[in-house]
Amino acid sequence: MQRLHLDYQARRPHSRRALVALAIGAIAMAAALWRFDQVRQERATWEAELAIAQARLDRQAAPRRAQGTPSAEETAGANAVLRRLAFPWQDLFGAFEAAAGKDVALVGIEPDPAKGIVTLTAESKTPRDMLQYVRRLQHTAFLSEAVLVKHEVQADNADKPVRFTVRAAWKERD
Question: Do 21 and 53 share a domain, yes or no?
Fold first, then answer.
């Protein structure tokens, strides 16, 4: 029996069009790589110039800060500290203690000097004591707009006190 030779891939000679397309593609790729290298070099030059300009700017700004010209962040931080130090703590505590009496216990005080508001958390024996305390706060000379924000009976405690939150604005004193 004779051997059978099967060729599943017929070999065709390369056409001129394919060779021309291959050559054009290779030239385009070489041009793109050449342009990419140029752009990369330009970018490196710009980054170096930017670093030099930034260093020059930092050197010019450093003596100004050393001479006492504070930055905006430093100024804002210093103003926040001054507001806290100038806060009338004595008047605030005095107003709360004078209004509290024996029926109300202060739990927490959270002032917000920037807004001129203070939030007070307290406990009273009865809801009536709570409402009387809020009325007394509304009539103090130091506070204005005292408002009951929330209240809750502490059911887990045997005495069942009422925990409540009051928000008030304080009046500026001259």
Answer: yes
